[in-house]
Amino acid sequence: MNYLIPANTKRGKLIFGLFRTIDLIIFLCGLAVTFVLLAIFPMDNTTMAVLALAPALSCTLLVAPVPHYHNIMCLIADMYSFFSERRRFIWRGWCFVYESTKSKK
Question: What are the tens digits of pLDDT across the range 14-42?
Answer without folding.
Answer: 777 778 899 999 999 999 999 999 999 88
